[in-house]
Amino acid sequence: MAKCSICGGPAVAYIRYQKRYLCDQHLVEYVESKIRRAISRYKMIRPGYRVLVPVSGGKDSATVLTALSKLSRELGFEVVALHIDLGIEDYSVKSKEASMKAASKLGVPLIVVSVREITGYTIPELARKARRPVCSVCGLVKRYIINLVAVELEADAVALGHNADDLAVYSMKSFITQDLANISKLGPKTESIQGLAVGRIRPLYEVYEKESYLYALLTGTPFLHEECPNVDFNSMENRLKVHINSLEEEKPGVKITMLRNMAKRIRDYPKPKLPISRCRHCGLLSSGDECSFCRLTRRITGQPLGPRAREVVRSLVTSLQLAPRQDSAYKS
Amino acid sequence: MKVKVRIVPDGRHLEVEAGVKALDLLKLAGMNSESGVVLVNGRPVTEDYKIREDDEVTVVRVLSGG
Ligand SMILES: [Zn+2]
Ligand SMILES: [Zn+2]
Ligand SMILES: [Zn+2]
Q1: What is the model's pLDDT at position B66?
Q2: CA distance A185 to A200
Q3: What gap in Å lies between CA B17 and CA B15, rounded to an integer?
Q4: A184 alpha carbon to ligand 3 midpoint, in Å?
Q5: What was the ipTM of the complex prediction?
Q6: Rounded to the nearest 5°, which phi and psi values hold at A44?
């Protein structure tokens, strides 16, 4: 059996593009060092930051939560987790359970927001009423709630779980469809817009999907293997993931090279031309005078539900009883 | 001697001969060294590991859909 290239212990993985075998402990250290390096290389987090980590119950957000909760002590920032209960049958019940177990194991405060509590409907019900694909409604609602919670928390950054494979695939898809403005949003970090939107960071920018899985597994963080029942394995993204990984097997390191170069060139891509304004109902980021969440819920229920969502989230945030933000970078 | 292999998250099963390498097992399950991991008794093994008769084997597809 193969031995760890560092300590000679039994290896659990071979890192092809580094030609190194690693044992469980060194694999965990290796992934953490990649995350630490990405945080500093791309200036994702500064001391005193409050970072919101949305957790789905899956491996990638489990990895982000575990690594950031460890690094938060070393680098001096604060971590708060968020789980959104989508109401997708059995899957949502299990994801919520996994998220709660992970947060409590790591001692990270967790906010659970239920879509049903805010809108009166689950995600599949909202999609049916809006006559739209489940995943598009799901994406819209999740983006809205994540940003809303981040704004209410006065968070400085939202840490997303996109790994290197995800980002390589999103950018390939955007290239194929020539939606070049979308590539400009796929970098390691996006900036905040005061009071309207909190910037996103991607700590797993250089972490391969397989490494993210191994990290979550070997650190013992609870996560769900099961996937959302609405995932379409024939989607362009999922087809491209298979292709880029056969290329990676033949040419180890191709994904990381692509992403590092993409980070360097990210400013060369055109920016989306959407005007930035404030939703007249809820006051959050919008491209017109009504945000897409308020529009969706107004069409379904007759009422824009952004203001109600804000109320619910505000009381959840208050009940967490976090220390007040003083030297918030968000406020300055 | 045959060894039963569970595939996650699909829930499928495979049967392979003892002695097969983890990498070949990944290929049999339609994956490669980047897209899948072989667990033996719950622990990840490297691609050159040879499956033994009494191993409890799981192949995990690590690529999630999006
Ligand atoms: Zn080692
Ligand atoms: Zn979904
Ligand atoms: Zn709104």
Answers
A1: 60
A2: 10
A3: 7
A4: 25
A5: 0.96
A6: -80, -40
Whole-model pTM: value is 0.95
Considering CB atoms only, which of A166, A218, A248 is closest to B66? Answer: A166
Give every strand in the sheet of A157-159, ordered side by side: A110-114, A78-85, A50-54, A157-159, A200-201
Helices A236-250 and A164-176, interaxial angle, to 10°?
120
Query: Which uninterrupted H or E stretch holds A51?
Result: strand A50-54
Q: Which of B6, B10, B32, B34 to mutate to test the interface with A (most CBs of A within 10 A)?
A: B34
What is the predicted pLDDT for the residue at B11? 86
Domain assignment present for B7: yes
Show the tokens assigned to A68: 């950031």
- pLDDT tens digits for A269-316? 999 887 889 999 999 999 899 999 999 999 999 999 999 999 999 999
What residue numbers bound the domain in which B13 lies? 2-59
| pLDDT over 80 (residue A328) | no
Domains of chain A: 43-273 (3.40.50.620)
